[in-house]
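Appendix B: a complete holo record

For completeness, this appendix reproduces one full record from the ligand-bound portion of the collection. The bound molecule is flavin-adenine dinucleotide. The inputs are the chain sequence and the ligand SMILES; the output is the full three-dimensional arrangement of the complex, encoded as structure tokens. No fields have been trimmed.
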Amino acid sequence: MPGYLHDAVLLYLDQLVDWDGYFRQRKGDDTDVDAERAALRGVLETCAELMSGIEPGSREGWPNAAKLLEDGNVELPAHVQAGYDALREAGLTALSISEEYGGFELPTLISNVVIQMVSRADAALMTVMGLQGGVALDIQKYGSDELKERYLPGFTSGELQGAMDLTEPQAGSDLGAIATRAYEENGEYFLEGQKIFITNGGSQIHLVLARDDASFEESKGTTRGLSLYLCPRTLPDGSPNAMKVEWLEHKMGLHGSPTCAIRFERARAWLLGARGEGFRAMLDLMNNARLGVAAQGIGIAEAALQEAVSYSRERKQFGVPIGDQPLMKNMLSRMIVGLEGARALLYRCSVLIDRNDAVERYLAREDVSEPERAELQRVYENNGVRIRLLTPLAKYIATETCDEITRMAIQVHGGIGFMAETSVGKLHLDGIITTIYEGTSEIQVSFALKEIGKGALQIVFEELLKELGALQDARLHPLADRVRQGIERIGEAAMALIKDFNYALLSAKGVADMTICVIAGTELLRQADADERRHDLARTWINTRMAELEMHAQRILEGDTSRIERCERIVDLWSE
Ligand SMILES: Cc1cc2nc3c(=O)[nH]c(=O)nc-3n(C[C@H](O)[C@H](O)[C@H](O)COP(=O)(O)OP(=O)(O)OC[C@H]3O[C@@H](n4cnc5c(N)ncnc54)[C@H](O)[C@@H]3O)c2cc1C
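The structure of the chain with flavin-adenine dinucleotide bound, as generated:
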């Protein structure tokens, strides 16, 4: 049974990533790439061991929730605190912080695998540690030198924790509705307003999206006029800032993760980045966090799968293990194929981000020749387009797949799966939120559609076609042909969508599913080319998902825009 350090991860560590190119571009030609790779493996092995150790305590402690103490601090339940302390001791709390501030500066792929492992052991613990890298990166990217020096070492050591404060009662998916005000007085900033549903809201450092008071009325309802602020609970002189945790939410799952309402009462804050550019700065954090949540979905799904496969082997009915029944085999294999497709998309997107990070650093050198610079600039921009499309798709598919797999794992358990003592029910309840926070699935597919509208498919497909053409194993070529046909069908369907924006929105999930089918299909073929044990995974993904792709394509190509009115009439039946 795959452990925390899954075979698929090792495939990326050993074969599917050009680590040589990555490290040389990132750190210079004299980098000892073997030593760097060994260090990455060491991080993953340490994390795998730690997480398999904390898993039993996490399952047992699952119902225990965080508490708001009388002194205004938030206390984590003992099992989450113990997990955090273990990660902190291993230096695994803020993975991507620059080496300049004592961090590991891990590649995105590796930090997402760490997040995946943590989530497999304890999804609530992931929300506490997973945020840290993103918050610290935003400070690193947009903060003044003073702020970086004041706070980043604390993130590296794990002493400081951060939160990301966007949501307000009237501003959920629509961040243009944010009404928390930022006042400027003699070059200092103060925040007033309320945020809700803030994960880890008891932490010291809050990154807050707020609307500038000076342009409040003219920017209201838009993301213009929003700036990003760093708001600490304790001011540099040690006095408390004018902000408090008002209450903690009671949730159906993820109990160990504190979800807080925060009140800012003219709290002192520091601007991150330029005024009015806060939404853009927050998008950096959000994109990072979206992939983190995708990794969380994969981790939770792995945990559920592990439970389901074990149970299917132990539980006997009609004289045989239930796992021997053809229907059960089909269900379990669907779960595994779904998981591997979602994983393929997440890892592919993470690798692209790493590639671009390395290129960006290389381009900052002065000794790059003009032709090489121009070529790398082109690669950088094309990869940027790919990342902007793959990020929402990865978040959407990984979290929806997590929801399906954890639900199916309950089914595999039958009646005992519905009992409070069984892990799979808890995993399902933890997993549902992944389809909601960091932007719901509907918002993710709408973002993806927007990128498609800007022409992303052409650039994404160009790369897929190259990779399909490069597959070595001739047994995979007929499957590659099917993916090529899928790419063509998506092109035809996309043309039909251009005509009507609302029709395109109505079809956004279908378009996302089709696009995911060919991207993950290609990535699974690359994996199968490197490891023949993965042929069946690629074959089954392509066989099943291509049939669905065709169904979506036909429906879209019908061009029946009256479907929107039909939906409205059907909903009206429930509104009369
Ligand atoms: C446990 C938990 C932790 C959270 N942590 C944080 C945090 O740390 N920081 C933070 O800022 N926020 C946090 N949130 C808030 C979370 O990001 C929001 O709940 C989420 O973005 C959805 O917003 P909403 O709840 O207002 O739902 P709404 O925006 O009201 O959406 C309701 C439904 O309408 C759909 N919908 C909305 N707009 C559209 C559209 N244009 N097209 C199609 N469908 C649409 C949505 O998909 C959803 O199905 C957290 C929430 C929870 C539950």
